[in-house]
Amino acid sequence: MNTKTLLTIKTDKVIKNLAQDVASEIGVPLSTVINAFLKQFVRDREVSFSASYKPSAHLRDVIARGEKELAEGKVVFHKGSDLFLKNLKS
User: Does the structure show a pLDDT above 80 at 6?
Assistant: First the structure.
């Protein structure tokens, strides 16, 4: 007995292609990724969205520049409460 069914969805072409590329990079078909998501959705009855734990190339560059400025003494940190109190006094 065939228990499979066809699911037709509309999605952005670029997103689909990028998702296929990522799935290919990790060695699974995109349908496996979608099926895993659907199983988790049914099991947990919730949808969770999260940002990637890997910073983008741009963010890595910004972090590196910030770390360099910190090491060179160009950056001074203040406690948030100090900044808040300073603004209240102004």
Answer: yes
CA distance 52 to 70: 25
- Comparing CA positions, the residue from 24, 46, 42 lying closest to residue 33 is 24
Question: CB under 8 Å to 16, separation ≥6 — which residues?
Answer: 30
The single residue listed with the structure tokens 């940002």 is: 51
- pTM value? 0.52
Q: Please answer whether residues 55 and 65 qualify as being in contact, where contact means their C-beta atoms are separated by less than 8 angstroms.
A: no
Q: What share of the chain is helix, strand, coil (3-state, %, to 5)?
A: 60, 0, 40
